[in-house]
Each structure stands twice: as C-alpha cells, then as structure tokens.
Amino acid sequence: MYLGITPSVTCNNSSRNEFSLILDKNPLVEFVEELPAGRSSLCYCNLLCGIIRGALEMVHLAADVTFLQDRLRGDSVTEIGITFLKKREEKKYRRKK
C-alpha cells in the first residue's frame, strides 16, 4: 500500500502455512540499473522481506520471508515467499464484567 503496488497472493501449500506475494511491478528495481560484476548474489530488494517479517513479528507471527524470484535477476516478476514458522494458538478471552 505504501509503495503504490498491489501484490497477487498465491497459496499452493496443502498445510496452508505458506504463500507467495507476486509483484508485477517492484518500485525498488527502478533505482538499480544492473547488479555489479561479481555481485550477482546481491539482493537489493531484501529490504521488502525485512519489512514484511518485522510487521508480522509486531503482531506476534513468526515467519520466514524470502525472495523466490527477482526482476533484477532476469525473472518476469518479483515473488516473495512467506512461511509461518508456528501456528498461532487460539485463545479465548473472557470479558471482565
């Protein structure tokens, strides 16, 4: 929302603990022309993974967030994979009267 993009969400896992965000347009790619020679493993867009992981931690959801595809590496889209590390416990709260 803050970057002005809307990702597509795909979920191909039967246990329903992981999904992917697919970005057709990545605004961070516009600031990088090409990766430096000898630095092909460098991922400028890891900033997005850190933002998503931090936001999930703020609501007490532990997750592993990684890049699966990146436009800077020649892929057609940018895909971020999110895997929840543990199930959130369902707690029932009773209102105090």
Automatic annotation (TrEMBL):
Entry keyword ATP-binding: no
Cellular location(s): Endoplasmic reticulum; Golgi apparatus, cis-Golgi network
Gene3D superfamilies: Trafficking protein particle complex subunit 3
BP GO terms, sorted: Golgi vesicle transport
Principal location class: endoplasmic reticulum
A cellular-component GO term for this protein: TRAPP complex
InterPro entries attached to this UniProt entry: Bet3, NO_sig/Golgi_transp_ligand-bd, TRAPP_component
Swiss-Prot/TrEMBL keywords: Endoplasmic reticulum, ER-Golgi transport, Golgi apparatus, Transport
Family per record: Belongs to the TRAPP small subunits family. BET3 subfamily.
Function: May play a role in vesicular transport from endoplasmic reticulum to Golgi.
This protein's name: Trafficking protein particle complex subunit 3L
